[in-house]
Amino acid sequence: MAHAPGRPIDVHTWSTPNGWKIPIMLEECGLPYRVVPVNIGRGDQMAPDFLAISPNNKIPAIVDPDGPDGQPITVFESGAILQYLSRKTGCLSPADERARVAVEEWLMWQVAGFGPMLGQAHHFRIYAQEKIPYAIERFTTEAQRLYRVLDGQLAGRDYVAGALSIADIAILPWAKYHEKQGVDLAGLPHVRAWLDRMLARPAVQRGFSAI
């Protein structure tokens, strides 16, 4: 659904899988935005002004000057932001209730499992100063299981819930870094094809380049 551009939305974010979701969504929906960098490496997320819009001190968060009833609104948590933007614009979320339930199921699958488990795999495989075999095996194994679930869902579908949706936008930035999670896509042909399809989208490319 086309949406008339308003004033730019401020996107407080950084170059992480969760952080990329929102610029990609905004690019897909054609909404104007400004990136406000939150350098999590130097602790910007702990600053009082960021805490005021993101009480959990996590990126991303947005400030939309044209919120409900024309009043500004702040939104934190990437899944909540994606849902808000889809309601605001009618973009990437179906009107049909059954179809919308499918989208929301896979969005929740990402925010509750796919992202957190892959984040732990990233941490223990790459960033942890102490290499703990149990933790590496636990989270790598779970990452591989989750990718098998995703591959099964994508069998016979171009996108996770049928049509392109906020579920795909949520999953994509994590799946892009499958190698860091110890996941080989050679045995996951549906994920591989979906990932190539998503990464070829101009709006996706612009979103990744925005930060």
UniProtKB/TrEMBL annotation:
Q: Which Pfam families match?
A: GST_C, GST_N_2
Parts forming coiled coils: none
- Output the superkingdom of the source species: Bacteria
Stretches assigned to the GST C-terminal domain: 96-211
Which stretches make up the GST N-terminal domain?
A: 6-93
Please give the PROSITE patterns that the UniProt record associates with this protein: GST_CTER, GST_NTER
| Name of protein | Glutathione S-transferase N-terminal domain-containing protein
Q: Which organism is it from?
A: Methylobacterium adhaesivum
